[in-house]
Automatic annotation (TrEMBL):
<dbReference type="InterPro" id="IPR032889">
    <property type="entry name" value="EgtC_Actinobacteria"/>
</dbReference>
<protein>
    <recommendedName>
        <fullName>Gamma-glutamyl-hercynylcysteine sulfoxide hydrolase</fullName>
        <ecNumber>3.5.1.118</ecNumber>
    </recommendedName>
</protein>
<dbReference type="Pfam" id="PF13230">
    <property type="entry name" value="GATase_4"/>
</dbReference>
<dbReference type="InterPro" id="IPR029055">
    <property type="entry name" value="Ntn_hydrolases_N"/>
</dbReference>
<comment type="pathway">
    <text>Amino-acid biosynthesis; ergothioneine biosynthesis.</text>
</comment>
<keyword id="KW-0378">Hydrolase</keyword>
<dbReference type="InterPro" id="IPR026869">
    <property type="entry name" value="EgtC-like"/>
</dbReference>
<dbReference type="InterPro" id="IPR052373">
    <property type="entry name" value="Gamma-glu_amide_hydrolase"/>
</dbReference>
<keyword id="KW-0315">Glutamine amidotransferase</keyword>
<dbReference type="InterPro" id="IPR017808">
    <property type="entry name" value="EgtC"/>
</dbReference>
<dbReference type="GO" id="GO:0052699">
    <property type="term" value="P:ergothioneine biosynthetic process"/>
</dbReference>
<comment type="function">
    <text>Catalyzes the hydrolysis of the gamma-glutamyl amide bond of hercynyl-gamma-L-glutamyl-L-cysteine sulfoxide to produce hercynylcysteine sulfoxide, a step in the biosynthesis pathway of ergothioneine.</text>
</comment>
<dbReference type="GO" id="GO:0016811">
    <property type="term" value="F:hydrolase activity, acting on carbon-nitrogen (but not peptide) bonds, in linear amides"/>
</dbReference>
Length: 254
């Protein structure tokens, strides 16, 4: 369900990662190779990127399939950035949220995406939503599981938690409430990438094999370079431009 990708490194045209590779995120929207849940990622897409001197990223999101959006092709051809996050959304049940449900979600310097699904949505996590202040519930961009996950993680970030701590605690909390959930979360502030592998595929490429010698963290490889490495399930990923640290995640208490 869904595919997403984050890049950190030297300035790069977005298309060099998002559209040019043979199994790019664009192609994964209709022909993913390692997606274990869902088949077509056609219910929206988005990309967020950082410009020099501005810590707040710009975003481009739409509710339809990425392959039908010609302005996206132009954007990825001309925009350069040292950091970006992009996602394509799996076909899902009908809803009125439109592009508001498409990642990346954003607040301040942060970009966020969720690949997976909260089991027994929304019943299983209703108590978690009820514990949020009313102003945070009213600020949700959409009525989907990814938007709630972002609210839970963002509350921790705003309280001073480190990115890894915020994502790990969010995964633990939601997995305890909805044990069959798939919770691959992806977060960047333009200088770091933090991600979780929990129930779905996650890979990374860093150093000489990555574009510009940077780092890419993605749901699946966009080419057949043998230097891609799969992240073990139940793992927290912390990455900078040329370094990746993997830390096992604890199972939530039963």
């Amino acid at each position: 369900m869904c595919r997403h990708l984050a890049y950190l490194g030297p300035p790069l045209r977005l298309g060099e990662v998002l559209t040019a590779p043979p199994h790019s995120l664009l192609r994964q929207s209709w022909a993913p190779r390692r997606q274990r849940h869902g088949t077509v990622n056609a219910d929206g897409f988005g990309v967020g990127w950082y410009a020099d001197g501005d810590p707040v990223p710009g975003r481009y999101r739409r509710s339809g399939p990425v392959w039908a959006d010609l302005p996206f092709a132009d954007l990825t051809r001309v925009v350069r950035s040292t950091a970006f996050l992009a996602a394509v959304r799996d076909a899902t049940e009908p809803g009125a949220d439109g592009e508001a449900a498409a990642a990346p979600f954003a607040a301040g310097p942060w970009l966020f995406s969720h690949n997976g699904a909260v089991a027994d949505w929304p019943r299983s996590v209703a108590p978690l939503a009820a514990a949020l202040p009313a102003v945070e519930l009213l600020a949700l961009e959409a009525r989907c599981d990814a938007a709630l996950l972002w609210a839970l993680a963002l509350r921790r970030l705003r309280a001073g938690a480190e990115p890894g701590e915020a994502l790990a605690a969010t995964v633990s909390e939601v997995a305890a409430a909805a044990p069959a959930s798939r919770l691959n979360l992806l977060l960047t502030d333009g200088s770091t990438i933090t991600a979780t592998a929990w129930g779905d595929s996650l890979w990374y490429l860093t150093g000489p094999g990555a574009p510009g010698g940077g780092t890419v963290v993605a749901s699946e490889p966009y080419d057949d370079d043998p230097r891609w490495r799969e992240v073990p399930d139940r793992t927290l990923v912390r990455a900078v431009r040329a370094d990746v640290l993997l830390t096992p995640l604890k199972e939530p208490p039963t």
